[in-house]
Write a structure and sequence with these properties.
The complex is a heterodimer of chains A (about 325) and B (about 375).
Chain A: E1 2-4, H1 6-20, E2 24-28, H2 44-48, E3 53-55, H3 60-72, E4 76-80, H4 91-98, H5 101-104, E5 114-119, H6 134-138, E6 144-146, H7 151-163, E7 168-173, E8 182-184, E9 197-200, E10 205-209, H8 213-227, E11 233-237, E12 240-242, H9 246-256, E13 259-266, H10 271-283, E14 292-296, H11 307-310, H12 314-325
Parallel strand pairs in A: 2-3, 2-4, 4-5, 5-7, 6-7, 10-11, 10-13, 13-14
Antiparallel strand pairs in A: 1-8, 6-12, 9-11
Chain B: H1 35-60, H2 74-83, E1 90-92, H3 98-103, H4 108-115, H5 139-153, E2 160-165, H6 172-183, E3 188-194, E4 197-198, E5 201-202, H7 214-217, E6 223-227, H8 231-246, E7 252-257, H9 276-283, H10 287-298, H11 303-326, H12 334-337, H13 345-357
Parallel strand pairs in B: 1-2, 2-3, 3-7, 6-7
Antiparallel strand pairs in B: 4-5
Helix pairs in contact in B: 1-2, 1-10, 1-11, 2-8, 4-11, 5-6
The chains are: A alpha/beta (about 325), B alpha/beta (about 375).
The structure holds thiamine diphosphate.
């Protein structure tokens, strides 16, 4: 066992993957010599050489296009977009090609690429450094989308993504990069893509969340339960956004009868829309209250002074928990 | 090297061997091509032209969805595609590359299958490294750069060829790709088939640059301008460029100066925007006429041979199209099967639902492999 934070977990997963597979190529802006602006790729160029880990020119569209070409030629590119929303130019290739080439070539040219990028707010950043646009990717056929929250999951999911035969996007909550440490097994292991995880088990309410909100939700649940000892809350970390773990969530809602989905991405047309719609389709008869959500508002993400207006906070989550538990039809 | 570094795009120099009558006008260029290869190339050029004509007819009958014709561009397309080594080199094409697909060994029936709406047609047969038609302009360049990175990294000896139009040269990805290929010294031939039109937008509204080839210079990529309707010039240049790339000299850029004789696509009418006199003048440069005159002059082609070829190719196209038409339908599972490596549960459920609406169609085709 080793104690790692999230960024070190990324670094260790990449190191193990590059050691294990000669086909793994890591590139992006500043990832080579410096090891990336967050140091996710620190030391890799030194260890594996400039051909396998290199600084790319600032051309995000090319990154993904070239990665598709590499993957079609049997390499395993792991591309870093320096910041999610500064990589918008890559969307053309992510949405238009990465998710489609397997189908377009009827299976002849799969494009198993891993795209990793920091995401999300609460980091007092400049404009376009705090976005959470996971729904854009989840909306696109052919792509898998992961948002890990713990070092254990970050390492295991990144290795699973590199192993996967499909293109995977890993959105890494920037706020959690160095927020805490966790014991992580040494060496190679994977966390299966598509499986959620219980943070707490409970009987009266299901909260589904992911990314940096796992921390806020945890605090809210602990506070609520300490004041209301007869209520227990099931807190689930989704971990994979697409395909999401429908089975676990439906089972949980059938048990608790109440659902709250929490994420910082804007409310409309979001991951919570998808989960709540599915629960309504498949577990409507079990509901003791209408499913609710606590999300970012449909606004351009404010700069630091207004940052908390947008984000779900412990207080906002607690208020939703109250509404759900006390709801009467 | 007789071209790279010697012809200067900044001086607007163009490489040409045949004039538009098919006479040799440049005796200084050395190249080696057998009569058999010349005849083979001409037959493919002719087949592609006939295929365009044929497909126009069946498209108007409502039997073909749409297609984008190569008419006018056959010389350069056949020259570069037939020069590729099968199973070794790659082609990362756009959507207007019919003649190149044929010359690279894709069966005509697969191409027709694609344009009738079956994606198996876009899948190149075993041993042919040709990507399916790329509709988003520009991205074929970056995919080519990535493929070439793979060739170099894996110590393979393939060269990657990629192509776009004069319109496509305005996409940022084009420069991004040449820059990347140059930085990594990758074996890729970037091609622009400058056919003077991007749908209804003329060349003059796409760029103010002296010519297309100069656009490569900023990335450090050597570039050449070639008369794209002159098969001999195209062939000679492509041989040198392939050698240049195989020897590890990095990427190279070629502008083929040509002209789109047909419509942009089968749903476009060029008479609306294309000046009539420009078109009439362009027809005098038809690559097929030029090549035919040259072969006749050489004594290896004749009017009689041409007539026989035309009717043989017409019959062939007819049979192949009828085959494609018969095989175009596929079962509903086909549109679910290739999205992911393994179908996630949500797709398994959606497929099960879809199947209740679409009874099984056993007519499943896997392309001509
Ligand atoms: C990125 C992108 N934008 C727009 C289009 C729509 N479109 C299809 S063909 C075309 C013109 C392309 O002209 P050119 O690159 O000169 O190639 P040509 O068709 O003449 O061979 C356009 C704008 C597209 N396919 N891709």
């Amino acid at each position: 066992m080793k104690t790692l934070n999230n960024i070190k977990a990324v670094n260790e997963a990449l190191d193990i993957a590059m050691e294990k597979w000669n086909e793994v190529i890591v590139f992006g802006e500043d990832v080579g010599y410096e090891g990336g602006v967050f140091r996710a790729t620190e030391g890799l160029q030194k260890k594996y050489g400039e051909e396998r880990c290199f600084d790319a020119p600032i051309s995000e569209s090319l990154f993904i296009g070239a990665a598709i070409g590499m993957a079609m030629n049997k390499l395993k590119p792991v591309v870093e977009l320096q910041f999610l929303e500064l990589g918008m130019a890559s969307l053309q290739n992510i949405l238009g090609h990465m998710g489609r080439v397997r189908n377009r070539s009827r299976g002849k040219y799969p494009a198993p690429i891993v795209v990793r990028t920091p995401m999300g707010g609460g980091i007092r950043a400049l404009e376009l450094h705090s976005g959470a646009i996971e729904a854009v990717f989840a909306h696109t056929p052919g792509i898998k989308v992961i948002i890990p929250s713990t070092p254990y999951d970050t390492k295991g999911l990144l290795l699973a993504a590199i192993e996967s035969n499909d293109p995977v996007i890993i959105l890494e909550p920037t706020k959690l990069y160095r927020a805490f440490k966790q014991e992580v097994p040494e060496g190679y292991y994977t966390v299966p893509i598509g499986e959620a995880a219980y943070i707490f088990e409970g009987n009266d309410l299901t909260i589904v969340t992911y990314g940096s909100q796992t921390v806020d939700c945890q605090k809210a649940v602990e506070e609520y339960e300490s004041k209301n000892p007869n209520v227990t809350i099931e807190l689930i970390d989704l971990r994979t956004i697409k395909p999401w773990d429908k089975k676990m969530i439906i089972e949980s809602v059938k048990k608790t009868g109440r659902l709250l989905v929490v994420h910082e991405a804007v409310k409309s047309f979001s991951v919570s829309s998808e989960i709540i719609a599915t629960v309504n389709e498949e577990a409507f008869g079990y509901l003791k209250a209408p499913p609710m959500r606590c999300t970012g508002y449909d606004i351009v993400i404010p700069l630091e002074s207004g940052e908390t207006y947008h984000q779900p906070t412990k207080e906002k989550i607690l208020s939703k928990i109250n509404q759900l538990i006390e709801y009467e039809f | 090297m007789q071209f790279i570094g010697k012809y200067d795009p900044l001086k607007n120099e163009k490489i040409q061997i045949l004039d538009n009558q098919g006479n040799i006008i440049n005796n200084n260029i050395e190249f080696d091509i057998s009569d058999e290869t010349l005849i083979e190339a001409y037959k493919i050029m002719n087949l592609s032209r006939k295929q365009d004509e044929f497909q126009n007819i069946v498209q108007r009958q409502g039997r073909l969805l749409s297609f984008l014709s190569s008419s006018g561009q056959e010389a350069c397309e056949v020259a570069y595609a037939m020069s590729m080594e099968k199973g070794v080199d790659w082609l990362s094409p756009g959507y207007r590359n019919n003649a190149a697909w044929l010359a690279s060994g894709i069966p005509v029936r697969n191409i027709m299958l694609y344009w009738t709406g079956n994606e198996f047609g876009g899948q190149s047969p075993e041993g042919i490294n040709v990507l399916p038609p790329n509709i988003i302009i520009g991205s074929q360049y970056s995919q080519a750069a990535g493929l070439a990175f793979g060739e170099k990294y894996l110590n393979k000896k393939g060269v990657v060829l990629t192509t776009t139009g004069d319109g496509g040269m305005s996409e940022g990805e084009v420069y991004e790709s040449m820059n990347f290929a140059q930085l990594h010294n990758l074996p890729v031939i970037f091609i622009c088939e400058n056919n003077k039109w991007a749908i209804s937008t003329p060349y003059s509204k796409s760029t103010k640059s002296l010519n297309i080839a100069v656009k490569a210079i900023a990335s450090g990529t050597p570039s050449l301008i070639v008369d794209g309707n002159d098969f001999l010039a195209c062939y000679a240049v492509i041989q040198e460029c392939l050698k240049f790339c195989r020897e590890g000299n990095g990427p190279v850029f070629i502008e083929f100066d040509t002209y789109r004789l047909g419509a942009h696509s089968s749903s476009d009418n060029p008479d609306v925007y294309r000046p009539k006199d420009e078109f009439e003048k362009a027809k005098l440069d038809d690559p097929l006429t030029r090549m035919k005159n040259y072969l006749v002059e050489k004594g290896i082609w004749s009017k009689k041979k041409q007539e026989a070829l035309d009717s043989e190719q017409f019959e062939f196209l007819k049979t192949e199209f009828e085959w494609a038409e018969k095989n175009k339908d596929y079962p509903v599972s086909d549109v679910f099967d290739y999205i992911y490596d393994q179908k996630p549960d949500f797709l398994v459920e959606q497929l099960a639902e879809a199947k209740t609406f679409y009874p099984d169609n056993e007519n499943k085709f896997g392309g001509d492999k």
